[in-house]
Write a structure and sequence with these properties.
This protein is of the alpha+beta class and about 170 residues long. It has five helices and six strands, in the order αααββααββββ. A hairpin with a 2-residue loop joins β5 (about 135-150) and β6 (about 150-160). The relative contact order is 0.14.
């Protein structure tokens, strides 16, 4: 009698399970689509909407900008608001008038777990002004750690790095 009940329960459970359950590959594809949507939202907000960009950061996010400043949580909105101010943007437009910030170009997207991903992406941005006031366009790497919370990908770690080309000295 007991085995029949257990068998009956198992049969009932099996009949509830969908026959086309998502596979790990399907989930990863959906996750990658979500991560790429995050990157597009970042690109869309960059230089234009400090609030939208800040909302892509988790409340416990830690950002290290290319100048070494550590910014915690959504305090990034203040930093973005200052950087996106008309005065700062006008300064850069006079120094590099034809420059348009390009979209992040993913080098590698890696899933560490179902809701945790790392992204390394190439980017370009104007340099801070030098002693002579000159500004150049610098290659950068943006490293992100993203977490999926309530179905939305958010940054929990952001590191921005300038990339300097390495030219080794000749031997001798």
């Amino acid at each position: 009698m007991r085995s029949k009940r257990i068998g009956g329960v198992l049969i009932a459970l099996v009949s509830v399970v969908p026959t086309s359950a998502p596979t790990a590959q399907t989930v990863r594809q959906d996750d990658e689509i979500g991560v790429r949507a995050f990157l597009k939202a970042w690109d869309d907000a960059w230089g234009r909407d400090a609030h939208a960009l800040a909302l892509l950061h988790a409340p416990d996010c830690v950002t290290v900008n290319r100048y070494g400043a550590v910014i915690e949580g959504r305090a990034v909105e203040r930093a973005f608001t200052m950087f996106f101010s008309p005065q700062v943007q006008q300064f850069y437009k006079t120094k590099v008038p034809d420059f348009q910030t390009p979209p992040l170009k993913p080098i590698k997207i890696r899933f560490l777990s179902a809701a945790l991903a790392t992204v390394q992406a190439e980017w370009k941005a104007p340099s801070p002004p030098g002693p002579d006031g000159a500004v150049s366009i610098e290659d950068m790497i943006v490293s992100l750690v993203l977490v999926q919370r309530e179905g939305k990908w958010l940054a929990i770690q952001v590191d921005l790095h300038n990339v300097r080309k390495f030219a080794p000295s000749p031997p001798g």
